[in-house]
């Protein structure tokens, strides 16, 4: 039986849409059937530069994509301040929603998106690609293994990259009217998500921002960090920045095991990714070396993580379309938790680094 | 010309003294000439089990070692609460001082040790072995290089290891009358030192403890962490624990470079050690892989780090003895800074996680 292809519309011509349109093309259960931009010329240029199918519809507006009957799902890489408007409208038009992160300007706004998705029976997923790499599942096995990892005790995560002066002046991610959350909403999203992922999505009880966040002249965050505390004693720290060399780390330490990786957001290589894991590590008798040492685990993948993301999303959409399944709630739930922690970091910064209690 | 040998006395038979007595034997400019314990039998057993030179004096007290004319320097691995008494007495007896960490119960107490060393013209050094590994010098070159590392922005360090129930009951490091600083004074010492080392020993302006430290019934810290903030915006976080799998990490991120290592305290192997360094790392055009990637640097060493520590210390002692040099102030200065930060973490915990301002 031939696989059903979920038909994607793309809203806007953001840089990241190049990668995701390639991913849709590479995913066997997905295809691009429409693209819309406020500028028809830009949409045409994007379609041609990115080898969209020749029969894909090209529109000079986002609305037209949402009104297109040959579109099942939309990929929305618009600036964060436009998410609520276009995501809600997409859901109302019964389009399944693959939305870039941060999903909204705050959790209350995200709730309007989720409500629209739920009442219209459409699937929601955010664009956090690394979640879909097979390495992530392999690391989850290690973290869930009481014999190899034990009980979680602490987590550290960071995502930093050094932007250039052009970015600092003109990128939408430093504009208060477009991406008001700045580095916290962009790179911080990944760091916070990775911490929640390690903690198996249990929300921390308290979140405190690190002192010394950096803002641009318009008040947008360029670097910041935070500490997360759970009821039963786990602690996590993170740091995110546009002003430091590219670094993407997760360290998770349990009573029995330790996990390290340094390329969690984008693997060093497209088709192969590693992590380091060690169980009951120790020193030799004279404390001059380690016995045992941590070991490196390498996972190969034919399809890169963004293709696996599209496949997973399209498969959920197909389930709804073809088999009448209910939308999967895992994905909007973890998006919301990520946004809640992000909001708490922002609130802590605004309140002079006070601890912010998170409701459940 | 034959190398002068600095003659060491060892105070006590602590486990760590086995490693250091081997290091003294392996250091070409050092030899053990005396050992003292409160129990003569224990001192004899230690001397025999650790192949001390057959003509080494064996005493049933610490005083006797300090009174021994054939001793130039003492290695003091006694419990922290005994440091001030025996270190000051050693200095007064003109014995140079290699003192285990934490150097004292607090900086004020350490100052009495330093004053005794200064007024008696003896060298002071603490027993932080990794400082002396050639890898450490190689990493310093990277961190100091404005082209490869740029300006320091953030640091994360941790040292955790999982102790057994016997340790939790009986080890001196969990006894309030012996090592009142617990895990903070032991493993936390290394984490804090590593942060200061990355920051080129510039003291932070403010130190805040992480929430959720764990104490034993006697009130001794078993796990804790902290955040350090510098005047010009650098931030550091650390975590230390007796309740988590062995993990020893340094991550240092600059505007242009990133340094990672996972075995900073004791290298995975005795004669070879690595670190990862990357400069101006970035993603490829489609953001699906890294170009360039960080690279691994491996340093071999014929002599393990504890031998290099003894050699360095003995060489300073020899300079004083033979050439009339002044004691080197670098080592007591960085010990004191480490202790100051450690004190601030403890004070922050005691004051409900308030930020503690550090004087200069």
UniProtKB/TrEMBL annotation, chains A, B:
Source species of the chain: Carya illinoinensis (Pecan)
Family according to the record: Belongs to the Gfo/Idh/MocA family.
Record-given protein name: Gfo/Idh/MocA-like oxidoreductase N-terminal domain-containing protein
GFO/IDH/MocA-like oxidoreductase domain residues: 145-259
Gfo/Idh/MocA-like oxidoreductase N-terminal domain residues: 6-125
Pfam families recorded: GFO_IDH_MocA, GFO_IDH_MocA_C3
GO terms assigned for molecular function: nucleotide binding
